[in-house]
Amino acid sequence: MALQFDLHRSQFVTNPVLRFLAYAVIALLLNVVHLVFLRFVAVSSVTPDLLLILTVWIAIVEGQFTGMIAGFLCGLLFDVVSEDVLGSNALAKTAAGFVAGFFWRDSYALQTLGSYRFLLVVALAGGIHNVLYYFFYVRPMQISFAMFFLKYGVATTLYTTVAAVFPMLYVNRRKDQ
Amino acid sequence: MRRFIDFVVRFKNYITLCALVVMSFSFMNVGNLSQLGGFRAVIVGSIGWMQSVFAWIPNPVALKSENLALRELNLQLSVEAARSRQSTVENNTLRKMLDLPSYTDYRLIAADVIGKTTTQLRNYATINKGVEDGVQEGMCCITDAGLVGIIIGTSPHYAVLQLLLNRDTRVSAKVQRTRVDGIIQWEGETFLVLKDVSRSFDVQAGDDIITSSYSARYPANVVIGRVTQVTDEANSLFRRVVVEPAVNFATLEQLFVVDAKPNVERTDNERRVDERLHQRTSP
Fold it and tell me: ipTM score here?
């Protein structure tokens, strides 16, 4: 049984088609989680952006090019299911994937994912994501972007970074085993 | 050609970034999902189904808050019911005397809120009534407390409504006491703001804000909220009027869809006049 699991795991690691399929399934599941369950952990309307964490993860494991495309597709999917302005999340998550991609190092993905560096990348990519997202968000409203971003953008970035601790700890434990 | 391919390979990340950014802006230009036609009904239906499957999960924080709100509302309603009975009698007598037409009684469609997206400032709700129940895009939603929002997407069995606490909210409103007009907007908190109220107009904390008859989208005289703060904005001719919504969106579970669509004759007439004036003023 253990052998079978290892075989499947190695196939998953070496076969990019299987891997990308897994990313797509995870993205769909995270969308459902966002829409149905995340309200239970909302703090003053602020929730962690799980799709952003996935985008950063993909960028660190697969590289900048794949990270950007994954960010774009994740964002577009979220725009469609969350009734948001089409393209706003896609743009923000593309930028997040692009920034996170700078931290990709061949064969060093696990080290990055399992350390505090992952949290720093999530915070940086999240900050840029939220600057872009809220810039377009406040456009139809007659309010200051800076004030709105300081209130909601920073809070969302922090909450997302805190949520990224869980995948980081998971990878960290697996790495030690 | 070789040099061009080398260039593309070398800068593929930046080229891809540019292409994706252009695509994102193109999608933004398309606007909202309403322009995707039937595709949207499928999304609304699928999300509605998913949310209805998990709607049984209680939210203890919301339940506690709802309990408190209901107790307050109950007390308030019992006082108002007595006043209302008296007012109705007076109103009927005065209407007969003045020979005024009575208000239209709209059909109300009761619906349960099966999903809410109040997180990350996407303030929408999904209800368990759709086109087959008579719900259409553009209809407004109310509760016993006041105005909730407007239907923006439908499928056969579900509908999505845009709550008042939404960046796209624009409601023509007036102060019930002094009949001062303004536009209700949301600025990202749990309250609304009544815009375009001149400094010289009489608005005070405690005044009730209702929908105006100028609105083509919302029926008139529906309660929106109560003024909690009035401040004179620096370097402006207008006042900042903060309005606390009458509806508690955090605990919203049931509502009524008002079966009333905008008056087509009125909106057509307004559009025609607007176009004529525009033609006259344009060179």
Answer: 0.86
Domains: count for chain A: 1
Neighbours of A7 (CB within 10 A): 10
Neighboring chain B residues of A32 at a CB cutoff of 8 Å: 50
Cβ-Cβ contacts under 8 Å between A and B: the total is: 121
Query: In this prediction, what percent of chain A has a pLDDT beyond 90?
Result: 46
Show the domain range for A100. Answer: 2-176
B-facing residues of A in 129-148 (CB < 8 A) are 136-138, 140-143, 148
Indicate if the pLDDT at residue A108 is higher than 60. yes
pLDDT value at B101 more than 50: no
Pair A33, A54: CB distance under 8 Å: no
Q: Where are the beta strands (DSSP E) in B49-129?
A: 108-117, 124-127
CB-based contact, A43 to chain B, within 8 Å? no
Could you tell me which residues of chain B have a Cβ less than 8 Å from any Cβ in chain A? 12-13, 16-17, 20-21, 23-33, 43, 47, 50-51, 54, 57, 59, 115-122, 124, 152-153, 160, 167-168, 185-188, 195
* Residue A83 near residue B9 (C-beta atoms within 8 A): no
pTM for the full predicted model = 0.70
Q: For residue A68, is pLDDT > 80?
A: yes
Position of tokens 């994102």?
B24
Test A85 with B31 for CB contact under 8 angstroms.
yes
> How far is CA B5 from its chain centroid?
52
For A11-45, write each residue's pLDDT tens digit: 666 778 888 999 999 998 998 888 777 777 777 77
Q: Which residues of B54-71 are buried (b: 16+ CB within 10 A; e: fewer)?
A: ebeeeeeebeeebeeeee
Q: Which residues of A touch B12 (CB under 8 A)?
A: 65
Domains of chain B: 60-167+252-258 (2.40.10.340), 171-250 (2.40.10.350)
CATH number of the domain residue A104 falls in: 1.10.1760.20
Per residue in B207-223, pLDDT (tens digit) is 999 998 887 788 888 88
Tens-place pLDDT, residues B135-181: 988 888 988 888 999 998 888 888 988 888 888 888 899 998 888 88
Say which of A32, A64, A90 has its CB closest to residue B24: A90
Phi, psi for residue B243 in degrees, rounded to 5? -120, 125
Q: Is A69 in Cβ contact with B16 (below 8 Å)?
A: yes
